[in-house]
Design a protein that fits this description.
237 residues, alpha/beta, Rossmann fold, 7-stranded mixed beta sheet, 7 helices
Length: 237
């Protein structure tokens, strides 16, 4: 085994250990999810849809890290994207995504079970756009940092990124809901939650990308507001 293969295997095993509880939870969620593909290019939320339309505009190759059952990539295909890569640690989610892609009339799809190490197999500057929907803040900080670095590497100059984040919990909510504080802003709420404020996320993303826009997405069915950043990689000079 060469050094790169050994490094990938060590990284994969470490990731599996850290996120095994999360993987099992998402396997159960996807086992009970809708098995149909979307019939229209909409999630049902106007603000989120505007972000997806922005990230897909003029795009051929798009990556969704944390793709789950592939739903967002299928919506992207309905918006005109051509080639789609989905990566998720849930083997059940990837299994469903691979079943669903046979029902899609448009687009080419590659769904991969794994974690950040799988992005390492993608060539530099080969992807037009990336979706990171409710995934960055469900990673340990060091892994979120590694993810953004890898996304920057595989994106073309001028490439776009959509990031959607969970709401920031207040100190009162953390206490009331008996959420475990691992360290600093890192919480265990059943899954991992890196509970940064919007300004802290803004500073984090600015290390890698230009911030084009910020929008808040209200989900009335959950009485919850998510946060969406629209980012762009600097053009190659």
């Amino acid at each position: 085994m060469d050094r790169n293969s050994l490094r990938e295997e060590i990284m994969r095993d470490a990731m599996l250990h850290k996120y095994e509880r999360c993987r099992k939870a998402w396997n159960e969620i996807f086992s009970n999810a809708n098995k149909d593909v979307p019939s229209k290019a909409s999630t049902g939320n106007e603000i989120f849809d505007s972000g997806i339309e922005w990230v897909c505009a003029g795009v051929e190759r798009i990556l969704d890290f944390g793709c789950g059952d592939g739903t967002l990539l299928f919506i992207c295909a309905l918006l005109g994207t051509k080639y789609h890569i989905g990566i998720d640690f849930s083997d059940r989610g990837i299994e469903i995504a691979n079943n669903k892609k046979t029902m899609m009339p448009y687009g080419e799809y590659e769904f991969i079970c794994g974690n950040i190490e799988k992005i390492g197999k993608i060539e530099d500057s080969s992807i037009d756009a990336v979706i990171l929907s409710n995934i960055v803040d469900n990673l340990y900080p060091e892994d979120a940092d590694m993810l953004l670095s890898e996304v920057s590497r595989v994106l073309k100059g001028g490439g776009r990124v959509l990031v959607k984040l969970n709401p920031c919990l207040t100190a009162e909510q953390i206490e009331e809901w008996h959420i475990k504080v691992i360290r600093d802003n890192l919480l265990d709420d059943g899954l991992i939650l890196w509970n940064n404020t919007t300004d802290e996320w803004r500073e984090f993303f600015a290390r890698y990308f230009c911030i084009c826009d910020y929008r808040e997405i209200y989900y009335p069915e959950y009485q919850q507001t998510n946060r969406m950043f629209l980012l762009k990689k600097n053009e190659v000079s």
